[in-house]
Write a structure and sequence with these properties.
This protein has 364 residues and is mainly beta. 3% of the residues lie in helices and 42% in strands. It has three domains: 3-163, no CATH class; 167-203; 210-362, no CATH class. The strands form five sheets. Strands 17, 18, 19, 20, 21, 22, 23, 24, 25 and 26 form a ten-stranded antiparallel sheet that branches. Strands 1, 8, 9, 10, 11 and 12 form a six-stranded antiparallel sheet that branches. A hairpin with a 2-residue loop joins strand 24 and strand 25 (322-327).
Length: 364
Protein backbone atom coordinates (compact mmCIF):
# COMPACT_ATOMS: atom_id res chain seq x y z
CA UNK A 1 0.00 0.00 0.00
CA UNK A 2 1.16 3.56 -0.62
CA UNK A 3 1.59 6.21 2.05
CA UNK A 4 2.30 9.92 2.24
CA UNK A 5 3.12 11.72 5.48
CA UNK A 6 3.54 15.18 6.98
CA UNK A 7 4.71 16.06 10.49
CA UNK A 8 2.16 17.51 12.89
CA UNK A 9 4.32 18.21 15.95
CA UNK A 10 4.70 21.88 16.86
CA UNK A 11 5.51 23.57 20.20
CA UNK A 12 2.73 25.27 22.16
CA UNK A 13 5.08 28.11 23.11
CA UNK A 14 7.98 29.38 21.00
CA UNK A 15 11.27 27.61 21.84
CA UNK A 16 9.52 25.27 24.26
CA UNK A 17 9.03 21.53 23.81
CA UNK A 18 5.74 19.78 24.33
CA UNK A 19 5.87 16.01 24.28
CA UNK A 20 3.32 13.96 22.37
CA UNK A 21 1.65 12.56 25.56
CA UNK A 22 1.34 16.09 27.00
CA UNK A 23 -0.28 17.35 23.81
CA UNK A 24 -2.78 14.48 23.85
CA UNK A 25 -3.70 15.24 27.47
CA UNK A 26 -4.29 18.91 26.64
CA UNK A 27 -6.45 18.06 23.65
CA UNK A 28 -8.32 15.43 25.62
CA UNK A 29 -9.17 18.02 28.27
CA UNK A 30 -10.61 20.42 25.71
CA UNK A 31 -12.29 17.96 23.32
CA UNK A 32 -13.35 14.95 25.38
CA UNK A 33 -16.84 14.30 26.68
CA UNK A 34 -18.03 15.75 29.94
CA UNK A 35 -18.61 13.52 32.94
CA UNK A 36 -21.85 11.56 32.54
CA UNK A 37 -22.31 12.62 28.92
CA UNK A 38 -22.10 10.53 25.73
CA UNK A 39 -21.53 13.67 23.63
CA UNK A 40 -17.92 13.99 22.51
CA UNK A 41 -15.81 15.25 19.65
CA UNK A 42 -15.36 12.94 16.69
CA UNK A 43 -12.57 12.29 14.26
CA UNK A 44 -12.86 13.72 10.75
CA UNK A 45 -11.75 16.50 8.45
CA UNK A 46 -12.05 20.01 9.87
CA UNK A 47 -14.98 21.88 8.31
CA UNK A 48 -13.78 24.59 5.94
CA UNK A 49 -10.32 22.97 5.78
CA UNK A 50 -11.27 19.64 4.26
CA UNK A 51 -9.15 18.31 1.38
CA UNK A 52 -9.78 17.98 -2.32
CA UNK A 53 -8.32 15.18 -4.45
CA UNK A 54 -7.27 14.70 -8.06
CA UNK A 55 -5.64 12.01 -10.20
CA UNK A 56 -2.03 12.18 -11.46
CA UNK A 57 -1.04 8.98 -13.21
CA UNK A 58 -1.34 6.20 -10.62
CA UNK A 59 -1.18 8.72 -7.79
CA UNK A 60 -3.89 10.61 -5.93
CA UNK A 61 -3.03 14.20 -4.99
CA UNK A 62 -4.73 15.35 -1.77
CA UNK A 63 -4.67 19.07 -1.02
CA UNK A 64 -3.60 20.65 2.26
CA UNK A 65 -6.13 20.18 5.05
CA UNK A 66 -6.72 19.68 8.75
CA UNK A 67 -8.21 16.69 10.53
CA UNK A 68 -8.99 15.52 14.05
CA UNK A 69 -7.95 11.91 14.62
CA UNK A 70 -9.21 9.91 17.61
CA UNK A 71 -6.36 7.38 17.61
CA UNK A 72 -5.67 4.61 20.08
CA UNK A 73 -3.44 6.79 22.28
CA UNK A 74 -5.60 9.91 22.30
CA UNK A 75 -6.86 12.89 20.30
CA UNK A 76 -4.69 14.54 17.64
CA UNK A 77 -5.30 17.73 15.68
CA UNK A 78 -3.39 17.22 12.44
CA UNK A 79 -2.35 19.76 9.82
CA UNK A 80 -1.13 19.03 6.30
CA UNK A 81 0.42 22.23 4.94
CA UNK A 82 1.02 21.06 1.36
CA UNK A 83 -0.47 18.71 -1.24
CA UNK A 84 0.21 15.09 -0.31
CA UNK A 85 0.86 12.43 -2.97
CA UNK A 86 -0.70 9.03 -2.32
CA UNK A 87 0.61 6.30 -4.66
CA UNK A 88 -1.91 3.55 -5.42
CA UNK A 89 -0.89 -0.09 -5.44
CA UNK A 90 0.13 -1.60 -8.75
CA UNK A 91 -0.48 -3.55 -10.87
CA UNK A 92 -3.84 -2.05 -11.75
CA UNK A 93 -6.76 -4.41 -12.55
CA UNK A 94 -7.00 -6.11 -15.92
CA UNK A 95 -9.67 -5.34 -18.52
CA UNK A 96 -13.21 -6.09 -17.30
CA UNK A 97 -12.24 -5.84 -13.64
CA UNK A 98 -11.83 -3.03 -11.12
CA UNK A 99 -11.25 -2.44 -7.43
CA UNK A 100 -11.97 0.24 -4.84
CA UNK A 101 -9.26 1.99 -2.81
CA UNK A 102 -10.04 3.95 0.35
CA UNK A 103 -7.67 6.84 1.15
CA UNK A 104 -7.52 7.55 4.86
CA UNK A 105 -5.56 9.62 7.35
CA UNK A 106 -3.81 7.93 10.25
CA UNK A 107 -1.40 8.70 13.11
CA UNK A 108 2.03 7.13 13.54
CA UNK A 109 3.02 7.86 17.14
CA UNK A 110 6.36 7.72 18.91
CA UNK A 111 7.40 8.78 22.39
CA UNK A 112 7.75 12.53 21.74
CA UNK A 113 6.39 13.09 18.25
CA UNK A 114 3.51 12.05 16.04
CA UNK A 115 3.19 11.91 12.28
CA UNK A 116 -0.03 12.27 10.30
CA UNK A 117 0.01 10.41 7.00
CA UNK A 118 -2.34 9.28 4.27
CA UNK A 119 -2.60 5.62 3.43
CA UNK A 120 -4.77 3.28 1.37
CA UNK A 121 -6.68 0.06 1.76
CA UNK A 122 -7.93 -1.74 -1.31
CA UNK A 123 -10.52 -4.36 -2.22
CA UNK A 124 -9.84 -7.38 -4.39
CA UNK A 125 -10.17 -6.74 -8.12
CA UNK A 126 -13.22 -8.34 -9.72
CA UNK A 127 -16.07 -7.64 -12.12
CA UNK A 128 -18.19 -6.50 -9.14
CA UNK A 129 -15.77 -5.30 -6.46
CA UNK A 130 -16.79 -4.57 -2.89
CA UNK A 131 -15.91 -1.36 -1.06
CA UNK A 132 -13.43 -1.85 1.79
CA UNK A 133 -13.58 -0.14 5.17
CA UNK A 134 -10.90 2.10 6.59
CA UNK A 135 -9.00 0.68 9.60
CA UNK A 136 -10.05 1.71 13.10
CA UNK A 137 -8.53 4.89 14.58
CA UNK A 138 -8.27 6.48 11.12
CA UNK A 139 -10.15 9.13 9.15
CA UNK A 140 -11.53 7.96 5.77
CA UNK A 141 -11.28 10.74 3.18
CA UNK A 142 -11.84 9.46 -0.38
CA UNK A 143 -13.04 6.42 -2.32
CA UNK A 144 -11.32 5.76 -5.65
CA UNK A 145 -12.37 3.17 -8.23
CA UNK A 146 -9.33 1.77 -10.04
CA UNK A 147 -9.95 0.21 -13.47
CA UNK A 148 -7.69 -1.03 -16.25
CA UNK A 149 -7.56 2.63 -17.37
CA UNK A 150 -6.16 3.67 -13.99
CA UNK A 151 -7.71 5.52 -11.02
CA UNK A 152 -11.02 7.30 -11.65
CA UNK A 153 -12.20 10.57 -10.09
CA UNK A 154 -11.94 10.38 -6.27
CA UNK A 155 -15.27 10.48 -4.40
CA UNK A 156 -15.24 12.20 -0.98
CA UNK A 157 -16.43 10.11 1.95
CA UNK A 158 -15.26 12.56 4.58
CA UNK A 159 -16.92 12.93 7.93
CA UNK A 160 -16.34 16.29 9.55
CA UNK A 161 -14.88 16.79 13.00
CA UNK A 162 -17.31 18.43 15.40
CA UNK A 163 -17.26 19.99 18.82
CA UNK A 164 -19.19 18.26 21.63
CA UNK A 165 -22.94 18.25 20.93
CA UNK A 166 -22.70 19.85 17.47
CA UNK A 167 -24.42 18.34 14.39
CA UNK A 168 -22.33 15.82 12.47
CA UNK A 169 -21.47 16.97 8.93
CA UNK A 170 -21.04 13.98 6.61
CA UNK A 171 -20.65 12.87 3.03
CA UNK A 172 -22.95 10.31 1.40
CA UNK A 173 -21.87 6.83 2.42
CA UNK A 174 -21.07 7.56 6.07
CA UNK A 175 -22.14 4.44 8.00
CA UNK A 176 -21.34 5.39 11.61
CA UNK A 177 -24.02 5.10 14.26
CA UNK A 178 -25.17 8.14 16.20
CA UNK A 179 -23.52 8.95 19.51
CA UNK A 180 -26.79 9.41 21.43
CA UNK A 181 -30.57 9.53 20.89
CA UNK A 182 -31.33 12.82 19.15
CA UNK A 183 -27.87 13.09 17.56
CA UNK A 184 -28.11 14.81 14.17
CA UNK A 185 -26.12 14.51 10.96
CA UNK A 186 -26.28 16.80 7.93
CA UNK A 187 -25.32 16.20 4.29
CA UNK A 188 -24.00 18.56 1.62
CA UNK A 189 -27.43 18.73 -0.06
CA UNK A 190 -28.97 20.08 3.16
CA UNK A 191 -30.84 16.89 4.11
CA UNK A 192 -30.62 15.91 7.75
CA UNK A 193 -31.04 12.74 9.85
CA UNK A 194 -31.65 12.20 13.55
CA UNK A 195 -30.47 9.12 15.49
CA UNK A 196 -33.33 7.17 17.11
CA UNK A 197 -31.06 4.97 19.22
CA UNK A 198 -30.95 2.20 16.62
CA UNK A 199 -31.20 3.85 13.19
CA UNK A 200 -30.92 7.19 11.36
CA UNK A 201 -34.32 8.74 10.58
CA UNK A 202 -34.70 11.44 7.91
CA UNK A 203 -35.80 14.83 9.22
CA UNK A 204 -38.56 16.18 6.97
CA UNK A 205 -39.64 19.78 6.65
CA UNK A 206 -43.03 20.66 8.17
CA UNK A 207 -45.71 19.48 5.77
CA UNK A 208 -48.14 21.95 4.22
CA UNK A 209 -51.47 21.52 2.48
CA UNK A 210 -51.52 21.34 -1.32
CA UNK A 211 -54.49 22.14 -3.55
CA UNK A 212 -55.61 21.09 -7.02
CA UNK A 213 -58.81 20.85 -9.07
CA UNK A 214 -60.28 17.31 -9.07
CA UNK A 215 -62.88 16.03 -11.54
CA UNK A 216 -65.96 13.85 -11.21
CA UNK A 217 -65.62 11.07 -13.80
CA UNK A 218 -68.33 8.85 -15.30
CA UNK A 219 -67.83 5.22 -16.36
CA UNK A 220 -70.51 5.24 -19.08
CA UNK A 221 -68.96 8.03 -21.18
CA UNK A 222 -66.16 10.57 -21.12
CA UNK A 223 -68.21 13.66 -20.36
CA UNK A 224 -67.98 13.42 -16.56
CA UNK A 225 -70.07 15.61 -14.26
CA UNK A 226 -69.62 19.34 -14.99
CA UNK A 227 -69.83 21.65 -12.00
CA UNK A 228 -71.40 24.39 -14.13
CA UNK A 229 -70.76 28.14 -14.13
CA UNK A 230 -71.88 28.55 -10.52
CA UNK A 231 -70.08 25.50 -9.16
CA UNK A 232 -66.59 24.62 -7.98
CA UNK A 233 -64.27 21.67 -7.38
CA UNK A 234 -61.52 21.90 -4.77
CA UNK A 235 -59.15 19.15 -3.65
CA UNK A 236 -56.81 19.71 -0.69
CA UNK A 237 -54.31 17.18 0.69
CA UNK A 238 -51.45 16.90 3.15
CA UNK A 239 -48.79 14.19 2.85
CA UNK A 240 -46.89 13.14 5.98
CA UNK A 241 -44.62 10.18 5.31
CA UNK A 242 -46.87 7.34 4.14
CA UNK A 243 -50.08 9.02 5.34
CA UNK A 244 -52.19 11.45 3.34
CA UNK A 245 -55.03 13.58 4.69
CA UNK A 246 -57.46 14.71 2.01
CA UNK A 247 -60.66 16.72 1.62
CA UNK A 248 -62.54 17.17 -1.67
CA UNK A 249 -65.51 19.51 -2.06
CA UNK A 250 -67.57 19.48 -5.27
CA UNK A 251 -70.38 22.02 -5.71
CA UNK A 252 -72.54 21.76 -8.82
CA UNK A 253 -74.27 25.05 -9.57
CA UNK A 254 -78.06 25.22 -9.69
CA UNK A 255 -79.38 24.53 -13.16
CA UNK A 256 -76.27 22.62 -14.33
CA UNK A 257 -77.26 19.82 -16.73
CA UNK A 258 -76.89 16.25 -15.43
CA UNK A 259 -74.28 15.14 -18.00
CA UNK A 260 -72.61 11.73 -17.96
CA UNK A 261 -74.00 8.35 -17.00
CA UNK A 262 -72.84 5.20 -15.22
CA UNK A 263 -70.76 4.94 -12.04
CA UNK A 264 -69.33 8.26 -10.83
CA UNK A 265 -65.83 8.41 -9.37
CA UNK A 266 -62.82 10.67 -8.91
CA UNK A 267 -59.07 10.18 -8.46
CA UNK A 268 -56.35 10.77 -5.88
CA UNK A 269 -54.12 13.83 -6.30
CA UNK A 270 -51.60 13.69 -9.18
CA UNK A 271 -48.72 11.29 -8.54
CA UNK A 272 -50.33 9.67 -5.47
CA UNK A 273 -51.06 5.93 -5.29
CA UNK A 274 -52.78 4.04 -2.47
CA UNK A 275 -51.04 1.43 -0.33
CA UNK A 276 -50.40 -1.90 -2.10
CA UNK A 277 -52.39 -4.10 0.30
CA UNK A 278 -56.17 -4.01 0.95
CA UNK A 279 -58.58 -1.28 -0.04
CA UNK A 280 -59.17 1.90 1.95
CA UNK A 281 -62.52 3.44 2.79
CA UNK A 282 -63.15 7.02 3.86
CA UNK A 283 -66.20 9.23 4.36
CA UNK A 284 -68.34 10.60 1.54
CA UNK A 285 -71.32 12.95 2.06
CA UNK A 286 -73.83 13.98 -0.61
CA UNK A 287 -76.25 16.91 -0.48
CA UNK A 288 -78.42 16.04 -3.48
CA UNK A 289 -80.60 18.51 -5.40
CA UNK A 290 -84.11 17.86 -6.55
CA UNK A 291 -85.24 18.75 -10.09
CA UNK A 292 -85.70 22.46 -9.28
CA UNK A 293 -82.20 22.84 -7.76
CA UNK A 294 -83.07 22.90 -4.07
CA UNK A 295 -81.96 20.42 -1.40
CA UNK A 296 -83.74 17.10 -1.55
CA UNK A 297 -81.80 14.98 0.97
CA UNK A 298 -78.41 14.42 2.62
CA UNK A 299 -76.83 10.98 2.38
CA UNK A 300 -73.76 9.58 4.15
CA UNK A 301 -71.78 7.09 2.10
CA UNK A 302 -68.29 5.74 1.49
CA UNK A 303 -65.41 6.30 -0.87
CA UNK A 304 -63.56 3.05 -1.59
CA UNK A 305 -59.96 3.20 -2.88
CA UNK A 306 -58.55 -0.08 -4.28
CA UNK A 307 -54.99 -1.14 -3.35
CA UNK A 308 -52.15 0.28 -5.43
CA UNK A 309 -54.54 2.59 -7.29
CA UNK A 310 -55.49 6.24 -7.72
CA UNK A 311 -59.19 5.44 -8.28
CA UNK A 312 -61.75 6.72 -5.77
CA UNK A 313 -65.11 4.92 -6.11
CA UNK A 314 -68.21 6.49 -4.54
CA UNK A 315 -71.02 4.53 -2.86
CA UNK A 316 -74.29 5.85 -1.41
CA UNK A 317 -77.62 4.42 -0.21
CA UNK A 318 -80.00 3.36 -2.99
CA UNK A 319 -82.73 5.68 -1.73
CA UNK A 320 -84.26 7.26 1.36
CA UNK A 321 -86.00 3.94 1.97
CA UNK A 322 -82.92 1.71 1.44
CA UNK A 323 -79.74 2.06 3.50
CA UNK A 324 -77.65 -0.50 1.59
CA UNK A 325 -74.95 1.05 -0.60
CA UNK A 326 -74.56 1.07 -4.35
CA UNK A 327 -72.32 2.96 -6.75
CA UNK A 328 -73.14 6.64 -7.16
CA UNK A 329 -74.88 7.31 -10.51
CA UNK A 330 -76.67 10.20 -12.21
CA UNK A 331 -78.45 7.67 -14.39
CA UNK A 332 -77.87 4.03 -15.16
CA UNK A 333 -77.67 4.36 -18.93
CA UNK A 334 -77.31 6.90 -21.71
CA UNK A 335 -80.44 9.00 -21.83
CA UNK A 336 -81.74 7.39 -18.67
CA UNK A 337 -84.98 8.96 -17.46
CA UNK A 338 -85.23 11.08 -14.35
CA UNK A 339 -85.47 9.01 -11.21
CA UNK A 340 -83.01 6.34 -12.35
CA UNK A 341 -79.94 7.58 -10.50
CA UNK A 342 -78.50 6.41 -7.22
CA UNK A 343 -79.43 7.61 -4.62
CA UNK A 344 -82.96 7.91 -5.97
CA UNK A 345 -84.33 11.42 -6.40
CA UNK A 346 -87.95 11.03 -7.54
CA UNK A 347 -88.53 12.89 -10.80
CA UNK A 348 -84.90 14.01 -11.04
CA UNK A 349 -81.23 13.13 -10.81
CA UNK A 350 -78.96 13.09 -7.69
CA UNK A 351 -77.05 16.19 -8.76
CA UNK A 352 -74.35 16.95 -6.13
CA UNK A 353 -75.31 20.30 -4.71
CA UNK A 354 -72.42 19.54 -2.35
CA UNK A 355 -70.29 16.38 -2.43
CA UNK A 356 -67.60 16.06 0.26
CA UNK A 357 -64.96 13.31 0.44
CA UNK A 358 -62.58 13.37 3.39
CA UNK A 359 -60.34 11.12 5.45
CA UNK A 360 -56.83 9.78 5.90
CA UNK A 361 -55.33 6.98 3.81
CA UNK A 362 -52.05 5.08 3.60
CA UNK A 363 -50.15 5.71 0.37
CA UNK A 364 -47.34 3.93 -1.43
Amino acid sequence: MGASSASTTSPWVSNQTVTSPEARLALGASWAKQVGSSILTESGAVEGAGPGASVSGNNILVTAHQAVVEAALGTYVCTSTATMTVPLDTPIPTSGQSRYDIIYGEIVDSSDSATYRLNTVKSAASASPSIPSAPSNTVPLFRVQVTSAGPQTPVPIMSWARAPGAPRLVETGDTRNGAYIGDRRKFRDGSEDVWSGSAWQRVVAPASWSQFTPSLLTAGDASGVPVGPNGSAIGRYLVQGKSMHLRYIFKVGAGAPPAGWGDISTTLPPGITSAPIEETQILAKLNAHNPVGTLYAIWLGKCFIPPNSNQMNLYFPFSSARSDLGTYQMSSSSGGPAGTGRPLVPGGYPIPGVLVIQGTIEIS
